[in-house]
Amino acid sequence: MKTAIGVLVFVGFASATVAQQQAAAPVRMECRELPSGGALAANESLMNGLACHVVGVKQDAAVKSAANVAPQSTSHIPAEPSQSEDFSAPAPVDTRIQAGSTVFVVPMDGFENYLAAALQKKNVPLVPVASEQQARYILKGTSEEKKPGWAKMVMMKQIHSDDAASVQLIDRKSGAIVFAYSVNKKNTLHGQQTTAEACAKHLKEQIEKK
């Protein structure tokens, strides 16, 4: 019975309030029975024995305030760079040859055998391996051997060959060419062995550079 009376009082009060604020935005209120000895909340007022508070005013005011704010032009705001764009400087490539690393000698029509032997003979601090996947470095190149013609053999007494070779050492990690050397030997006694040892000698010097 108390609840029914409370509702009638609330309706009467709300009607009077609405009548006074017809020119303003409609106001909604919620009321509850205040138990004996009960305290009012911070946003409640005592009206005819009921604890009442206004609802919906803040929400409506926030919507109107947002609607009255003029949209700001963004033409003067610079576009942010895409995350996919990388403006950082590229990392420097280390061209130093690491002593003790593994190396794979690419087949070169038999010249790779002379190179592998020359690496050991000249004490080059690299370890030859049989698989490219196991190697830190790749050693590849070309070799050419020219036998003297009969004219040189008869006229110039040249019985040895002219040999040339060109090699490159490539870092598999970075793809950089860390060593390159070309040699051209005339009238060599041991042919490809001589050019291979020349390549190995200069490779060792490059590794030992500080």
What features would you describe in this structure?
This protein has 210 residues and is an alpha/beta fold. It folds into 2 domains: 2-61, no CATH class; 102-207, 2-Layer Sandwich (Double Stranded RNA Binding Domain). The protein contains 5 helices and 8 strands. The strands form 2 sheets. It has a 5-stranded mixed sheet with strand order 5-4-6-7-8, covered by helices on one side. Helix 3 packs across helix 5. The termini are far apart. Mean pLDDT is 74; it is low at 1-24.
Main β-sheet description: 5 strands, mixed
* Strand order within the widest beta sheet: 5-4-6-7-8
Provide the succession of SSEs: HEEEHEHEEHEEH
Shape: rod-shaped
Report the average pLDDT across residues. 74
- Separation, N- and C-terminal Cα atoms: 101 Å
Count of discrete alpha- or pi-helical segments spanning 4 or more residues: 5
| Alpha-beta classification | alpha/beta
Rg value: 47 Å
Strand content: 25-35%
- CATH architecture name of the largest domain: 2-Layer Sandwich
Task: Enter the CATH topology name of the largest domain.
Answer: Double Stranded RNA Binding Domain
Outline:
The chain has 210 residues and is an alpha/beta fold. The chain is built from five helices and eight strands. It has two domains: 2-61, no CATH class; 102-207, Double Stranded RNA Binding Domain, CATH 3.30.160.
